[in-house]
Amino acid sequence: MKWFKSKTETKHDITKEISNIEKRFEFLRIGTALFISLLLIVLVIALVSKDPLSAVRELLTGPLQTIRRMGNVVELAIPLTFTGLAISMVFKTKRFNLAAEGAFYMAAMASVMVAIYSPFPPLLTIILGILAGAVVGGFLGFIPAIIKHKFGANELIVSLMQNYIIAFFVQYLLNYVVRDPDSYSIKSYDLPEGVSLFRFITGTRIHVGLILLILIVIAAYIILYRTKWGYVLRLTGSNEKFAKFSGVNVTFVIIIAQVLGTAIAGIGGAVEMYGIYPAFIYTASPGYGWDGIIVATLARLNPAFVPVAALFIAYIRVGADILNRSTNIPPEIVTIVQAIIILFIAAKAFLRHQKEKKIIEKSREVADEGAH
Amino acid sequence: MPNNIVLEMNNITKIYSNGVIANKDAHLSIEASEIHALLGENGAGKTTLMKVLFGIEQLTSGEILLNGKNVKISNPLEAIALGIGMVHQHFMLDERLTVTENIILGMEPTKGLSLDYKKAAQMVKEVSEKYNFKVDLNKLVMDLSVGKKQKVEILKALIRGAKILILDEPTAVLTPQETTELFEQLLILKNQGHSIVFITHKLKEVKEICDRATVMRLGVYQGTYAIKDVTVRDLSKLMVGRDVVRKVEKKPLNVGNPVLRVEHLKVLNDESKVVVNDVSFAVRQGQILGVAGVEGNGQRELIDCITGLETTFSGKIKLDGLTDKDTFNVKNLRKHGMNHIPEDRMVYGVAMEESIQENLISNRYDEKELNNGIFQNRKVIGTLTNDLIKQYQIKTNSRDTLVRMLSGGNMQKVVAAREMSTTMKILVADQPTRGIDVGTATFVHDKIVELRDQGVAILLVSADINEVMEVSDSLIVMYEGCIAAYFENIKDVTEENLGLYMLGIKKMSEDEIKGVYA
User: Fold this and answer.
1) B468 and B418, same structural domain?
2) How is B393-462 classified by DSSP, letter by letter?
3) How many angstroms away from the CA of B235 is the closest CA of chain A?
4) Which of B330, B397, B400 to mutate to test the interface with A (most CBs of A within 10 A)?
5) Domain membership flag for residue B181
6) B396: distance to nearest CA of chain A, Å?
7) Are residues B227 and B361 in the same domain?
8) Looking at B193, B208, B240, which one is the last position of a domain?
9) Cα distance from B375 to chain A (closest Cα, Å)?
10) Which residue of B has its CA nearest to A248?
11) How many C-beta neighbours within 10 Å does residue B432 have?
């Protein structure tokens, strides 16, 4: 009888400790992944560089050395956050719709076209262009979602195919519709005077799109964790059958998440155009949709962590670019970091044994205390 | 006596990787030629202890001695090689192969590259004759009854040379008649020198057939006893820590209007086989209608249709105020007062990775009181969850604990708390106490009866004969998709008689069954 009591009392004190252990190992996993990838990079640099020490220093601290470089990090983090947020929303429902990649590219083109052909004053044009980006993005997210729903075609494959179609379609539009014939390089007509986002930190290109982005991040977090829609979305992602059993219109939730998520990537495309570029110059997609997958994975699909993850990825990219300018090491070296991070985060078995051992030890400890 | 001990497990501790302690310093010793009961409630750690023995789970600490020799068993193949066999609660058979093919799978005799079916048949026949098993060896497993499938499982273990046979709750799926047959079989095995570990929580059966019993409670060894020296009451006290023999208290029946009507329901499965055939019945206010039957006789499909999870069927289902088939979906049904405790709680009952709170509000998250405009009213939700946790005695320190951290019994309490705490006209309770401890089961039964006394209609589906007989007011029995029997008054039902209907040996006439619908 004594055992019975002590066991029920102690058993539940331990749930908190176990979830603490789990959390600690989650951080440890990401930390170890970062450490190992950086170690590998240093190794590669040491092999090819004449002055490995300063090369590593360039890579790690380069982005912090001037305001302009710090600006570069933030500038790059902006589109990465948009697509990372987009992918996070979509992946929350366990639907691997990658339309965000095409959406960013297509929405960038759409916003430029709006700007070129708009009869309205600049401010209205900007608003229209960003809205156009959102609509284009949402629509592209909708296609794989609805095809999956109606015909059961895998959304991953459909969205990948769609990204190719979009890539060529945008190139067509660039070459045959909006191309500036007076320019030697392949670029669109210039955006009209005033159709650009205000840059508020001198010496950088950081623009007011950043503020819009912060608002979207906060809104996404609040919707996801403070409203009933977010609740339904999380429930559906966590256990679709249970959500259906509870009376949730699961199909609707899943489709709407893909539409809204991908629309964020579209907004990102438009904001990037108006914020950074004087004309459309992407002859190929910048691939921010793919990067969004990395960012979303690193942020564990939590909107609050997405900007942090985006800043990190942007930081090492800018570092690699700087390194490339001062040495002959190609900037693609960062893909090693990214690959290793993704690998370690995705590999669920990594450190699992250690984690389980820790949990078992803790359980036994608590149980023994209870027994005495 | 110590001479004929074939197996000893000493100080076995097993802690799962989520921190759950399944066994703590457990002991077990098995003699040759004995039927040894491993007795304990659901969640007492019986199955885990046997999984450790069979190599499915690895022990955290402790030792296993087989014929006095220390052995390490790291997978089932090693266990089989050591002469240990296990028949699981859920059968591990390929439904589309014949009995013979199933039995020799993995050890088939071959002729060149092909299976030597003749030799295989010969091998299987020898074993089945040796132990007097009556199974048609050339039948497809899918055409066998549950009792026969179990025999195939036992044969599978025997042909691989099992001297120690572990049976995990073998009678849970059997009718009384099949149970009797199984016991005869087990006695034959015992007399031929086999040792049988009989995992169960049914004391009557232990008394009937076992020689000794090892009792476990909450993962802890409570002792080993010779059956002839102890009474059922002693064992039950050891098992639960208090008396379990207890009757469900019910107020006199006060039946009102029908809430749910099912008319000529017919359901085909994916293979166009009829799984529910012309079923009609009604459930009324203040009545608990039990649905008994061996699992797989159409109960699941029936419930899926009634609760809106399956929408392809012919016939009519009418819930008070909701008759149009097009509007017959889960959301509408819930809105019209149908609550549902699902059969499979892991899949339909909870979201494991979400907190207790999130799990408790899934059927009412869009109620006005729980929301403040577009935001969730976290204060109200918090109070509500805390109340439910208290009222339904969910053991946790915090409503934010993830559901996967809870024991099976507490998970079921989460489901029950959610489904029984909104106003409703009908509750569909599908296996509401499967796999949970007696305490929680009693609690759930009491709550069901409480709702019935308030005038809620209850449809109770259970494969557990004792449960349907104890809790229901009226009872239907399902066999092969049809209603085989209807008892208006549960007091007219005996266990044996019920078994005959469940097995399809007896079937009532349409006139006798009609009453359930009229």
Assistant:
1) no
2) T---S-TTSBGGGS-HHHHHHHHHHHHHSS--SEEEEESTTTT--HHHHHHHHHHHHHHHHTT-EEEEE-
3) 15
4) B330
5) yes
6) 6
7) no
8) B240
9) 4
10) B331
11) 29
Domain extent at residue B387: 355-422
Q: Give the pLDDT confidence of B252-301 residue by residue, as tens digits.
A: 888 888 999 999 999 988 778 889 999 999 999 999 999 998 888 899 99
Instruction: Name the pLDDT band for A7 (thresholds 50, 70, 90).
Output: very low
The answer as to whether B346 is a domain residue is no
Provide the domain count of chain B: 3
Q: Which residues of chain A make contact with B375, given a CB cutoff of 8 A?
A: 222, 226-227
Among the ranges given (A173-177, A275-279, A325-329, B224-228), the one the predictor scored with the smallest mean pLDDT: A325-329
Whether residue B126 is found in the same domain as residue B182: yes
Structure tokens at B396: 């946790």
A84, A306 Cβ separation under 8 angstroms: yes
Q: Cβ contact (<8 Å) for A363 and B395? A: no
Q: Are B287 and B301 within one domain?
A: yes
For the residues A70-85, what does the mean pLDDT come to?
Answer: 94
At B79, the pLDDT band (50, 70, 90 cuts) reads very high
Task: Compare CB distances from B330 to A14, A19, A244 and report the shortest one's residue.
Answer: A244
Looking at the structure, tell me whether residues B511 and B487 fall in a common domain: yes
Question: Taking 50 as the threshold, does the pLDDT of residue B197 lie above it?
Answer: yes
Task: Say if the Cβ atoms of A364 and B15 lie within 8 Å.
Answer: yes
Is residue B30 within 8 Å of residue B5, measured between CB atoms?
yes
- Please report the pLDDT score of residue A6 as a whole number: 38
Q: What is the CATH number of the domain that holds B124?
A: 3.40.50.300
Q: What is the pLDDT at residue B190?
A: 92
Query: Is pLDDT at A8 greater than 60 in this prediction?
Result: no
Cβ pair B19:A362 closer than 8 A: yes
Location of structure tokens 């239907």: B476
Domain boundary residue, one of B240, B267, B290? B240
**Is residue B475 a contact partner of residue B491, using CB atoms and an 8 Å limit?**
no
**B160 and B24 in a common domain:** yes
Residues B288, B406, single domain; the answer is no
Is position B229 within any domain? yes
Residues B202, B85, single domain; the answer is yes
Q: How would you list the strands of the sheet with B35-39, edge to edge?
A: B69-71, B61-66, B5-15, B21-31, B220-226, B212-217, B35-39, B195-200, B164-168, B84-87
- Residue B508 reports pLDDT greater than 80: yes
Helix (H, G, I), strand (E, B) or coil at A211: helix
Closest to B334 (Cβ–Cβ): which among A8, A247, A355? A247
Q: Which residues of B touch A226 (CB under 8 A)?
A: 375-376, 378
Closest alpha carbon to B360 in B335, B376, B381: B381
Examine residue B453 and state whether it is found in any structural domain, yes or no. Answer: yes
The structure tokens listed for B277 are: 């055939």
